[in-house]
Amino acid sequence: MTTPVLRLAGVTVRIAGSHILHGIDCSVAPGGVTALLGRNGVGKSTTLKAILGIVPAAGRIEFEGQDIIGRPTHRIVRSGIGYVPEDRDVFAGLTVAQNLELAHQPGVDPDYDTVHELFPELLERRKQRAGTLSGGQQQMVALARVMLNPARLLLIDEPTKGLAPKLVEQVGDALVRMAEHTTVLLVEQNLPLVRRVARDAVVLDTGRVVHTSPAADLLADETLLDSLLGVAAVPGPGGAQR
Ligand SMILES: Nc1ncnc2c1ncn2[C@@H]1O[C@H](COP(=O)(O)OP(=O)(O)O)[C@@H](O)[C@H]1O
Ligand SMILES: [Mg+2]
Prior knowledge:
The protein is an alpha/beta fold. The chain has a single domain, classed as P-loop containing nucleotide triphosphate hydrolases (Rossmann fold), CATH 3.40.50. Helix content is about 35%, strand content about 25%. It has helices spanning about 45-50, 75-80, 95-100, 110-120, 120-125, 135-145, 165-180, 190-195, 215-220, 220-230, and strands at about 5-15, 20-30, 30-35, 55-65, 65, 80-85, 155, 185, 200-205, 210-215. It has a 6-stranded mixed β-sheet, with helices on both faces. A 4-stranded antiparallel β-sheet has the order 2-1-4-5. β9 (about 200-205) and β10 form a beta hairpin. α6 packs parallel to α7 (about 165-180). The model has no long low-confidence stretch (mean pLDDT about 90). Bound molecules: adenosine-5'-diphosphate (ADP) and magnesium ion. Adenosine-5'-diphosphate binds near residues 38, 41 and 42.
């Protein structure tokens, strides 16, 4: 068996006295997209924040075999983990170009070719203040920032939230491209997008892993989807798409 890029064992998070993660156990195999799924409030974003050391966690979190728990966030990011947070947080007063420049890491030749190929609009709007962009364009900036650096694991939190279908497709294109070069752990509610991009699925419920399987197996199982996520089965590529 290949060594997982990421392995969580008994990861617990307690914030202000309340238990948010109750012992997460899961592994992310190298390459491709692993989808982290679950209803609202079950701990998906907290899991990503625990991996990054943004919230204090106990247990074991291995990145490429090394325990990274307790390390400061900047060291975790430097060791090769990129993060696109749920709230996008671009610098509203800065231009698109300045937002991207801030993501440059020392000693790295930033990969603008891929960014401009996938998001040509960012090149056209490079002098525009990020605060005047649409939500979709801001999401492109947030994704572009992590694409500039050669991370070996990307943690991406609900990148299509609130986006129009055309933009969801564009974000999907970017995820597919990212996953050709690196490993992606993706929190996503849009199940047709999960079907398109994800190889594996991990489902959380109230701070625990309740299901792990190939994504296609989960998405094809109406009973499981209903019990784990409270949604109906997802139409295949030939079925009706919303
Ligand atoms: N900083 C915090 N302080 C207190 N409770 C929090 C904090 N962050 C998240 N929570 C709680 O932890 C639970 C999991 O949150 P979250 O990880 O954001 O869920 P998800 O991303 O799956 O929607 C929720 O009940 C949320 O209210
Ligand atoms: Mg969340």
